[in-house]
Amino acid sequence: MKLITPIPLLILTFALFGGTGISQDDLKPYASPKESQVRHVVRLPVLEKGEEENRKIEIVVSKTEMLDSVNRYFYGGKIEQKTVQGWGYSYYELEKVGPLAGTRMAAPPGSPKVERKVRVNGGLDLLRYNSKLPVVVYTPEGFDVEVRIWSAGDALQAKPE
């Protein structure tokens, strides 16, 4: 039963939406980043009435590294959902990142290192799509934040008996 499918072309990043002339007033409730931290802000596009209920978002935190092309790599860590005191708005924070880990297959001798995005495992469940508020994520310096938008299909599954 496939209820949710990714929309691969709608991967949004801070680089796409930061500094596009959008008002910064909606960031006033959010704290400035701590030392050695970066605040990433993603603004979701406004959808037609009724469409936001059929969407969810996934926050993906990653870092670009020069690695071999054979092994699979990841960082350990936990992205936590927190609340802005007095406002009730959610924000997300990745405070500590574990060491780089991965499989240990031998790369062919002399194979060059390649640039790869390494994700932080320990992400969140899918989150509610809300274009009225920015998605604010605090990470250590050097990490990127992307948002993947998921869409539910129009057809509902048969009701169980």
Low-pLDDT ranges: 7-22
Strand element count = 9
In which range does the helix fraction lie? Answer: under 10%
Which word captures the global form? globular
Number of helices: 1
CATH fold title: Immunoglobulin-like
CATH architecture: Sandwich
For the record, the count of structural domains works out to 1
Mean pLDDT: 85
Largest sheet: 5 strands, antiparallel
Q: Tell me the name of the CATH class.
A: Mainly Beta
> N-to-C terminal Cα separation, in Å?
16 Å
Strand proportion, as a percent range, falls in over 45%
Note the run of SSEs as H and E.
EHEEEEEEEE
Radius of gyration: 18 Å
* CATH evolutionary superfamily: Ecotin
Structural class: mainly beta
Structural description of this entry:
By secondary structure, this protein is an all-beta fold. The protein has one domain (about 5-20, about 30-105, about 110-150): Immunoglobulin-like (Sandwich). It is built from 1 helix and 9 strands. It has one helix at about 15; strands spanning about 5-15, 35-40, 55-65, 75-85, 90-100, 115-120, 125-130, 135-140, 145-150. The strands form 2 sheets. Strands 1, 3, 6, 7 and 9 form a 5-stranded antiparallel sheet that branches. Strands 2-8-5-4 form a 4-stranded mixed sheet, with no helix packed on it. Strand 4 (about 75-85) and strand 5 (about 90-100) form a beta hairpin. It is globular, with a radius of gyration of 18 Å. The two termini are about 15 Å apart. The relative contact order is 0.35.
